[in-house]
Amino acid sequence: MAFLSLGFGALSQQSSADSVIASAKEITLSDTINYDDLFQDFDAFMDSILSPQSYFLASLSAVKGYYNFETKNTASLIETSKKLTYSPTLGYYHKSGIGITSNGYIINDGSDMNFYQFSLTPSFDYLQNKSFATGFSFTKFVTKDSLPFYTSPLQNELYAYFTYRKTWIRPTIAVSYGWGSRSDYMKRESVIQDIRLRRRGYTYINTEESVSDFSLMASVRHDFYWLDVITFNDHIRFTPQLALTSGTQKFGFNQSSSTYATVARTGSNVLYSTDNVYLDDQLKFQPLSLTMYLRGEYSIGKFFIQPQLVFDYYFPASSKNFNTVFSLNLGLMF
């Protein structure tokens, strides 16, 4: 509906053709526009953001997410609370495709601002071909001990993607594999069992449990651009993206949505409903979620602001399958 309304607005400003030959005084401003130059400028802009180039990135994002806290209330061993998460990001990306990204994750846990997790991600993106983009990354998560809320015991993640860029709607396939050590799992096992006790009415114990998860995501998206909106050095981008994610997801990935600044990276975050709490006793490969991302960006010079609205339907949840999340990202590229 949003796309149709934009089209109607554009059509309403277009005058119908006139069979009478206009005089010189009746020639409008649109007749003087050099459309060849206009489209050449747009092509140059697209080439500039799609072509490989080196840059630094600094940004700060804020998003509300669900956290599961241990409580002393025997009637409810786990209390689900929606908290605002702050995530500072620093990164460097070389035009050869090599990049390095660091992320921090901070929440107010009720007593203080808790810098509970840090991640470091070396990556490589192949962007030399205008028809497609592909790349892979490895992420190492470092999480504080003795946290009052559940975090995934997966401490390592491999991620790879492939995007075809020649069509109007760009399809992407991405895979993620995460794993952790047995000691990482044991630190969180009591919290995991309490969550399962609340959800299913019994305690589930499996001493042979493997600490790993696998996800496969298929998505389609299109980028809409408006150039020189307020000044000659700015642009607006709007990107709707529809993603279907399948996998095991027994422990949950520590995934987060990528910034637009790394153009080829698509983001692979999956939302979870309150009842699901990242966990599933079934290791089988199954559909997990259908997610609609509505991503916006306003960029002027080196500064950008990126709001994002996400609608997610989580299939395995017994109730409250549908969820929404809004996030905001501010940053600089230099």
What labels would you give this structure?
single chain, 334 residues, mainly beta, Porin, twelve-stranded antiparallel β-barrel, 14% helix, globular
What does the model show?
- The chain is mostly beta strands and 334 residues long.
- It has a single domain (35-333), classed as monomeric porin ompg (Porin).
- It is 14% helix and 46% strand.
- The protein has 3 helices and 13 strands.
- It has helices at 2-12, 35-50, 182-200; strands spanning 55-70, 78-93, 98-108, 113-126, 132-143, 156-164, 170-179, 212-221, 224-227, 234-247, 286-300, 303-314, 322-333.
- Strands 1-2-3-4-5-6-7-8-10-11-12-13 form a 12-stranded antiparallel barrel.
- Strand 11 (286-300) and strand 12 (303-314) form a beta hairpin.
- The longest helix is centred in the middle third of the chain and has 19 residues, at 182-200.
- The protein is globular.
- It starts with a helix and ends with a strand.
